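pasting for the record
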Amino acid sequence: MYFCHLFRFFKIQTFKIMRKFFGVLFVLMCTVVLLQSQNPQLKSGVVFKKMFLDYQSQNGGNFTKFKDYRHGYEIGFQRMLTPKVALFLPLRYGVVDTHLDSINCFKKRIASLDAQFQYQFNEPGRKIIPYVMAGLGGVYEDEGDFNLQIPVGLGFYFRLSPNAFVTWQSEYRYSLAENRNNLQHGLGFTYMLGKSDEATKTEEKMDSDNDGIIDELDLCPNVFGAKELNGCPDKDGDGIADYMDKCPDSKGLKEFGGCPDTDGDGVSDNDDECPKIAGSASNKGCPLKVETPKVMDSDGDGVSDDKDNCPGEKGSASANGCPDRDGDGISDRDDKCPDKPGLKIYYGCPDTDGDGIDDSRDKCINVAGTVANEGCPEIKKEDQRTLEVAMQAVQFQTGSAILKPESNIVLAQISDIMNRYPDFNMNISGHTDNTGSSSANQVLSEKRAKSLL
């Protein structure tokens, strides 16, 4: 009997608390309606969410044990108080596990009504709008006491159209009753309703692509663009709107209609047939072709036929295309010494001793001489007289090739003179008298000449 009276007492007290709470909510909603009539710029909306209720992790359970989350639903009313502040009144219903001190320890139904305020980080044209929220709510349980909870959390609006949003909200709910703290997550849909004077103006000044530029001023009203380009996009970021850009995917220059000029030849890449090689505008951006005249070189010696004195024979450039065996720059046909490099003044012959007589005419090529002596040095007069006397003083024994002793002194004088003139040529001849036969005298003459060597 005592428990029955106690239950009736708590039921009456719970009813009184709920009546006061919903009375406060009613006054708050009336205030919102009054504010709406005073400020026609506000918008209203309806919200529907699928709820995921976590009464376990905050009361001894595990946050990551998602299979223990329970399900519920939410419908709500939202009103914009300012462009960034909204009042949200969500009504929720769901089923959760009873708390640990429950009599039955079974699932129980809950219903709640909150008053939440949202601060939205909203900017013109933004597709994703984050927000933070806080508020106060009353929760009724079919098993347990009515309790007040303070929700705080954050969420996101994902814009589908100017009036439609996908919404996600996560909140922590602090309960003024024991063992009632919980986490709630909701995924759903928000749709903004109603029209005001400002809404009518907005319709008249629509911004279809949400780029912050009204359609009547937007050159590209259906495509998100930049303000500095009157609402048109610029994919390559070259400052030229895509609809005017001849090369919308390549960053270019204004003077080329938005196209680049890679080789810097003054012809844009879209018109340049050689975009990586500088060329001429008259040749479509390619270098001008210079035709090299064909040069005939019949003998392949590197000297063209028009400059080759011997076009049928392979020669050297120094000899004007003619053969030059000794490489002295004088063709073989003009060279008196074709196998020895020489001088042009000597018709290709050298002058080894430098006496001014080329080797072809010099009888003493290694010793400087005179022209009168055919390139050989002149013999001193005293040496010439000695030779003339010596030639008469050489004597042999009668009928023999044996020299007389006094002839050795003369031969010594002749040898000394020959040593002083090494390139001098001397003819040696032997003579006999007319005694005996001519054949015998010839033989004797040859023997006498040889005996002097």
